[in-house]
Amino acid sequence: PEWKDKNNNWRIEIESETSTTTTGELHTITTAFRLRHAGTGCLLSAAAVKLPSWGFRQTEVTCSRTNKPASSASLWVVEKHTNARIPAMDLRPLVKGSFVADFLRLNMEMARSNNALVPDRDKHNHLESSPWSWPFLVYPMRMLGSWKKGDIKYYEVGNPLLWWVSALACVLFPVQLAYYYVRKQRRVSNDWAPGEELHFWNGAKLLWGGWAFHYFPFFLMGRVTYIHHYLPALYFALLFLAFEIDHACRRLLSANMQRVVVLAWAVAAVAVFCWFAPLTFGYVDDIKTLKHRQWLPTWNVYQDKYVI
After folding, report:
1. Which of 42-46, 106-110, 157-161 reaches the highest mean pLDDT?
2. What is the β-pairing status of strands 155-156 and 10-17?
3. Nearest one of 86, 67, 71, 73 to 28, comparing CA atoms
4. Fewest 10 Å CB contacts: which of 103, 140, 155, 301?
5. Lowest pLDDT segment from 55-69, 124-138, 157-171, 222-236
6. How would you class 74 by CB atoms within 10 Å of its CB: exposed for 0-12, middle for 13-18, buried for 19 or more?
């Protein structure tokens, strides 16, 4: 039956059916269809853009007369249908699918929904941070909204010593690379031990490359980002730091001094870890009783000026 308002009339055009049924009826999940307006002929489409904050960041739904039947934006699927008058039945034997096609589609949808998590530039969010700030731990993150006495307070700060020095090693590596390249081009005396140069290049390109491939793509992402997105890159940065310390010690220091330097680094790393351990494992008492934990003015260990 037609609605009283003819503008509410839509025609269902079935595009594809992945189940084994051939009745031409519309089914949940398996039937992809389009909705064409009976009066204007336009297709109901979900645009790739999001509405502003006044639209609660919802997907914009339009019905444009510039129809693109080949576009997936006009395809719709009924995800769930509940009807008490219809007996429940197992529809899984009727559904057919391809593992490769389902795998690709699932990953494409996850990437699309992930990129849709865009930051709201109209307001400040103390949890968010930009990729440029991650290597030098400019904005650590409070893991809880409440920072009161009696609440367990977690602060994603890690080990600042290892974090900063590993970032410095990664940032300065291109300079080191250029230095060794210029020396080689100018035929400066070769002071590499047998096999040392090949060992350095193989290790450096693997570890520094791992850091770069896990870090730089975040600059291309439009979605909201947090400091924990840097953790995979940090893993390679720490390995690269250990690799560079070993490389420098072997080239510049005697065997005894190498042991001293490595021991000093280990003691310093453990000491800093213990110093920030209460924030890593959770602190219940008043946060102000933990003295000297705010090493940068941008940290919000004791007070967040954006929290009312």
Report:
1. 157-161
2. unpaired
3. 86
4. 103
5. 55-69
6. buried
How far, in Å, CA of 162 to CA of 238, rounded?
7
Q: Nearest-CA neighbor of 94 among 16, 22, 19?
A: 19
For the entire predicted model, the pTM comes to: 0.69
Residue 1 has pLDDT above 60, yes or no: no
Largest CA distance in the chain: 92
Question: Which residue, 304, 301, 298, 272, is CA-closest to 287?
Answer: 301
Question: CA 263, 265, 271, 277 torsion: positive or negative?
Answer: negative
Q: What does 194-263 look like in DSSP terms, one character per residue?
A: TTHHHHHHHHHHHHHHHHHHHHGGGGG--S---GGGGHHHHHHHHHHHHHHHHHHHHHHS-HHHHHHHHH
Q: What is the dihedral of CA 15, 17, 23, 26, to 10 degrees?
A: -70
Contact 271, 143 (CB under 8 A): no
